[in-house]
């Protein structure tokens, strides 16, 4: 069937505009807008004594200068705490412009608006801020000692403290289970900070229409609907008077889910106040010091296990560095602590985290969102158990796997959506079997010996994870067939390169039986769809994909009803193929969907030839019922929502072979293999692309990327010169295989795929380096000089 | 500062994508900003403003350069090709553009114009690059989405498409 497109490697609908320079990213818009620039704090912790703007006021083209004192009610209030949680007892958010105290380098202090960005920066450079320096609090362990405080009213710098405990089947707590176990181990793990680092930074462009008192805001955001609500609330505007559009967005990876950013409030406010279009485009240095980071954690682990390596008790204590503010709550450490168990059935589990303030950039989700740390912890634990028992690392994992007949499997924890952590489906033993075959696990010992004989050090490692994807609360889809036979799909969540226009079109084309080129998809535009949550947590395909499918099914049912009347057929005998409703077994009897769309909307006025069919004297309508029957609506369109009872759980396993240079300690990834299971695939090409990108970010996190803060809270590597992201030369060939274990939770049987690739990479690379070197690797990322230091300490 | 009394501006003339374009810019205006904001060619993107990411790569007299490290006044009279000028006169996509979409070598598309310009020059100079030559050739451009897997494939595919087209023409 020509219209069966679900599951096909369809080329992307987005590409033609993006490869010809016709994309519309934030800074491509508003060419005549005024430009905003910000004076940002050069200090990690200081009190503002005075702000002197006098030297700036003579700059040609200067339009306005604003400090916190200039901001009106609501606009001047602290930014919202987006995800409150009972354990977040001391949540704090920033003011849009600093009020009295700055708490990290990069915090905005003064906003400047000028004719263009050059002039705005000229003026910003002439503004002098007099600071009284306060003691910076840097490093999560130092901060946790609470000697100096980031917020005067937050004792011990502890924003949140949370414990979850799942006893064993026999009712033992984790600590008792560990004490009673035949073997125990205790160790510490460290993960450094990294960041989403999309190649397009953040940006906001606002137009105020003084005639109809409405505001249009464009933002490079992962959630236009929620930015809209936040802006309307901050500016005191009725919601229908504010529209927010996410144009083409040059990557998000989590950082752009945070909102409203100071600039998302201030730029629209200034546009209203000045009656002029205003735009702010973040530069790279601003992105490093003023957006968000992630990953930094210190973990203390105790584990008890039996002779087979089965985990009887696991006790993990996490120190999580959340930076200066907590606008996104404690989602990251919640995810770390709940996704830590991976594909395993663990005897008893206790996890405790403290989420700690430091005078550094705030921490909010970056692709993986706490899972890379969780997987690092669990998988390092598995490797240490294997080493302790002298067992094969894959065998130890296998001994702990949840088996396919145990689903749904309740881990006994509360997940990031506030709902029980119940795995819906999966086949972990099969994933491992496929992975071992792909990487050549069983034959590796000989390969390693042969390499050793040549004086080369190689090692193999693996890592397994489970990822809760497709979190609620909901997404919606709207589908309209117009009288030209075209299908217009919209959904409220946003796109940052995932290919939503393509996969959602595939879903709609499949559900409605129309050719793909008749379907167009709009995302992230509140003018088209106002109810949405956003793009994060590998949820877009699951949430909007299913919502669009359900909306299409409504449209299909309606189309079949109208066509049945027109064709005098039983709706159950009708199919839609190639955009035509056909009577099964009667090739002559058909009606184009375009005509069905015309008939769906009874008309008084014929605006074109086709429309005549729907007018009152066409003879088409039954005289026995009103033109629009009770319970019906005019038009061939449908809207529906998908709201899952809980998350769906994708899974995967990665393996790598690395080579370490005996002299230089350089680390090279020779092979990288991925087995991935995200349920049914809508477009395998796009899923593979997501995995590739995730693995590359994982390689960055494992070997290169870190945020180098000094003791003063200065970020020493806030540029692409010094923050090392992988180029093509650093990413190995990625070999992939898919399993498709459908989710029983949603109509399409799909699970999320966006974050998966990044999750286990640090664990896998650590495992492989450890295998090559015979030295424990407990801290990531690892550079050649750090490996060299490890060797020196180990005396090898 | 001189800005307080107005900046001196310079009239320059550039041949961009085959068309002569005039602009009047201050000495400090970057070529990237001149293309994007004076000439409205927003396909050239700016990702780092210090010459590392390669998003702003354009062809200057045929050679790839970082337009964010180039002052517009220094290229007065020169020829520039941007992503908007890679397709043929009738809008037919270049082999590099076709290969990028065929191989799914872009996701968010922000780095793509820089890659397309870089690869166009790479294949002109070396029509059949080896795997190592491809990696070397694109190792000055960052992509945060694709993990480069499909970009590498696309470069080889573009080489194939170019060879096919030339074979067909011969």
TrEMBL record, chain A:
InterPro entries: Ald_Oxase/Xan_DH_a/b (IPR000674), Ald_Oxase/Xan_DH_a/b_sf (IPR036856), Ald_Oxase/xanthine_DH-like (IPR016208), AldOxase/xan_DH_MoCoBD1 (IPR008274), AldOxase/xan_DH_MoCoBD2 (IPR046867), AldOxase/xan_DH_Mopterin-bd_sf (IPR037165). Pfam families: Ald_Xan_dh_C (PF01315), MoCoBD_1 (PF02738), MoCoBD_2 (PF20256). Residues 616-637 are annotated as: Disordered. Keywords: Molybdenum, Oxidoreductase. This is Xanthine dehydrogenase family protein molybdopterin-binding subunit. GO terms for molecular function: iron ion binding; oxidoreductase activity. Residues 20-135 form the Aldehyde oxidase/xanthine dehydrogenase a/b hammerhead domain.
């Amino acid at each position: 069937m020509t219209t069966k497109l679900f599951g096909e490697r369809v080329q992307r609908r987005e590409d033609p505009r993006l490869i010809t320079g016709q994309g519309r990213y934030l800074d491509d818009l508003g060419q005549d807008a005024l430009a905003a620039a910000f004076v940002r704090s050069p200090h990690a912790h200081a009190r503002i004594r005075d702000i002197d703007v006098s030297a700036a006021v003579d700059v040609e083209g200067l339009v306005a200068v604003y400090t916190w004192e200039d901001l009106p009610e609501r606009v001047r209030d602290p930014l919202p705490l987006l995800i409150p949680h009972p354990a977040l007892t001391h949540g704090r958010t920033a003011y849009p412009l600093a009020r009295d105290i700055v708490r990290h380098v990069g915090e905005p202090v003064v906003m400047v608006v000028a004719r263009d960005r050059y002039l705005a920066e000229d003026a910003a450079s002439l503004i002098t801020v007099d600071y009284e320096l306060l003691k910076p609090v840097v490093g999560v362990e130092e901060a946790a000692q609470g000697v100096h405080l980031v917020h005067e009213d937050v004792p011990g710098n502890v924003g949140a403290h949370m414990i979850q405990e799942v006893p064993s089947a026999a009712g033992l707590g984790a600590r008792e289970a560990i004490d009673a176990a035949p073997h125990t181990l205790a160790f510490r793990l460290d993960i450094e900070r990294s960041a989403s680092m999309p190649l397009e930074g953040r940006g906001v462009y606002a137009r105020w229409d003084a005639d109809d008192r409405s505001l249009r805001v464009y933002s490079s955001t992962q959630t236009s609907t929620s930015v809209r609500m936040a802006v309307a609330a901050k500016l005191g505007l009725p919601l229908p008077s504010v529209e927010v559009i996410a144009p083409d967005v040059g990557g998000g990876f989590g950082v752009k889910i945070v909102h409203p950013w100071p600039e998302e409030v201030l730029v629209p406010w200034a546009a209203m106040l000045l009656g002029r279009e205003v735009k702010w485009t973040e530069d790279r240095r601003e992105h490093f010091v003023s957006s968000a980071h992630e990953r930094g954690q210190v973990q203390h682990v105790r584990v008890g296990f039996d002779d087979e390596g089965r985990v009887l008790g696991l006790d993990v204590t996490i120190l999580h560095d959340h930076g200066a503010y907590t606008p996104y709550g404690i989602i990251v450490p919640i995810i770390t602590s709940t996704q830590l168990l991976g594909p395993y059935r663990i005897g008893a589990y206790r996890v405790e985290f403290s989420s700690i303030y430091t005078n550094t950039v705030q921490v909010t989700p970056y692709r993986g969102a706490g899972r890379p740390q969780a997987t690092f912890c669990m998988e390092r634990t598995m490797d240490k158990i294997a080493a302790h028992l002298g067992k094969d690392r894959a065998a130890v994992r296998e001994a702990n796997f949840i088996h396919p007949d145990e689903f749904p499997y309740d881990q006994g924890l509360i997940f990031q959506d506030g709902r029980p952590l119940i795995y819906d489906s999966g086949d972990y033993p099969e994933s491992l079997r496929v992975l071992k075959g792909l990487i050549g696990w069983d034959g590796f010992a000989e390969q390693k010996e042969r390499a050793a004989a040549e004086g080369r050090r190689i090692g193999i490692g693996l890592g397994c994870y489970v990822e809760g994807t497709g979190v609620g609360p909901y997404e919606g889809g709207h589908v309209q067939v117009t009288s030209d036979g075209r299908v217009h799909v919209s959904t409220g969540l946003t796109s940052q390169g995932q290919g939503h226009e393509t996969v959602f079109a595939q879903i709609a084309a499949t559900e409605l039986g129309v050719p793909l080129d008749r379907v167009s998809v709009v995302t992230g535009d509140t003018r088209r769809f106002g109810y949405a949550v956003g793009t994060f947590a590998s949820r877009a395909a699951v949430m909007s994909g299913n919502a669009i499918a359900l909306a299409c099914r409504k449209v299909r049912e309606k189309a079949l009803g109208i066509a049945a009347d027109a064709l005098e057929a039983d709706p159950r005998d009708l199919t839609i193929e190639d955009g035509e409703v056909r009577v099964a077994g009667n090739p002559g009897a058909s009606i184009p969907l375009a005509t069905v769309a015309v008939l769906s909307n009874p008309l008084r006025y014929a605006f074109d030839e086709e429309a005549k069919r729907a007018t009152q004297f066409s003879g088409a309508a039954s005289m026995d019922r009103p033109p629009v029957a009770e319970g019906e609506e005019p038009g061939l369109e449908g809207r529906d929502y998908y709201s899952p009872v809980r998350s769906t759980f994708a899974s995967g396993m990665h393996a790598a072979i690395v080579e370490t240079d005996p002299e230089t300690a350089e680390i090279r990834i020779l092979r990288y293999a991925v087995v991935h299971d995200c349920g049914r695939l809508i477009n395998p090409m796009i899923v593979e692309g997501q995995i590739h990108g995730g693995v590359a970010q994982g390689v960055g996190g494992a070997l290169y990327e870190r945020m180098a803060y000094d003791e003063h809270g200065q970020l020493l590597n806030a540029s692409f010169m010094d923050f090392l992201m992988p180029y093509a030369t650093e990413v190995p060939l990625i070999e992939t295989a898919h399993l498709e274990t459908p989710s029983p939770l949603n109509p399409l049987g799909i699970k999320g795929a966006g974050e998966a690739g990044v999750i286990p990479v640090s664990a896998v690379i650590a495992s492989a380096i450890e295998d090559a070197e015979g030295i424990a690797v407990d801290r990531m990322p690892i550079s050649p000089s750090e490996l060299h230091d490890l060797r020196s300490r180990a005396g090898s | 500062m001189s800005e307080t009394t107005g900046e001196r501006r310079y009239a320059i003339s550039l041949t961009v994508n085959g068309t002569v374009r005039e602009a009047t810019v201050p000495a400090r205006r970057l070529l990237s900003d001149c293309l994007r904001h004076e000439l409205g060619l927003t396909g050239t993107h700016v990702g780092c403003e210090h010459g590392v990411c390669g998003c702003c790569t354009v062809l200057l007299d045929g050679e790839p350069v970082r337009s964010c490290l180039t002052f517009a006044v220094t290229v007065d009279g020169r020829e520039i090709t941007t992503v908007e000028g890679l397709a043929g006169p009738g809008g037919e996509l270049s082999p590099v553009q076709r290969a990028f979409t065929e191989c799914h070598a872009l996701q968010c598309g922000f780095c793509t114009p820089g890659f397309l310009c870089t690869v166009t020059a790479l294949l002109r100079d070396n029509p059949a690059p080896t795997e190592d030559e491809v990696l070397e050739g694109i190792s000055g451009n960052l992509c945060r989405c694709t993990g480069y897997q499909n970009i590498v494939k696309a470069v080889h595919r573009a080489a194939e498409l170019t060879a096919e087209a030339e074979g067909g023409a011969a």
